[in-house]
Amino acid sequence: MDHQAVLTRFDRQIRRDAKPDGPGARVERADGVVRQTGAEGSSWNGVVWSDLDESSADAAIAAQVRHFTELGREFEWKLYGHDLPHDLPQRLTAAGFVAEPVETLLVAEVAALPTDVPPPEGIRLLPVTDETGVDLMSQVHDKAFGRSLGLTRHQLLAQLAEDPGAVPAVLALAGDEPVSAARMETHPGTDFASLWGGGTVAEWRGRGIYRSLVAFRTRIAAERGYRYLQVDASSMSRPILERLGFTALSTTTPYVHRAAGGA
Q: Residue 42: its pLDDT value, please?
């Protein structure tokens, strides 16, 4: 895989030419950035792409702060390690953004990944197709990460309401107990699908469930004709994914600007 060529393709298809990620969201191009303004209470808000330099960065940052502040929205500037100018992190911090943990942008060719990794004994995989499934995903997220599924729950429900077949999400169950969950986002018209939310409750980690969830979603990506899978990987999932064949292309850091009066 030509790393630079794939990164360039990812930047163009997923970031610069981004499409709305859910019903009611809109993508706009202004002030040297591409941003999404989500449907109130049910979609992500933030900047996915920027084409800035030292002379334009501060004005562009200020314009985005004004835009989302006028709407009363918290928003995220999704900064990648190769974005310019090089001091963009410092400029965002000076404008009131708070950096969250750094993740690694990993990419793999779908054709090179396993698509049939059975879960460990006693575990069954179940596609998520309705609100009950989303609620079970929320239970896993609470236990695995110690925080609510939050906005993602609203996004999943909105996507299921619009098209029940559009959400490639999966649960791992031990009996009737949800112990792991993950989802995939597809990006029609691009070469990429992306993996999100892979989490396993503590007592079930290290048994191969995560690998089986990756394979489950890889099979769907292959069936739908995607060439690459992309993950924003935490330090916990990165080693597993690299052993499966994913390659690091960059880093990504969420810079969050709280709404007025927010915590």
A: 67
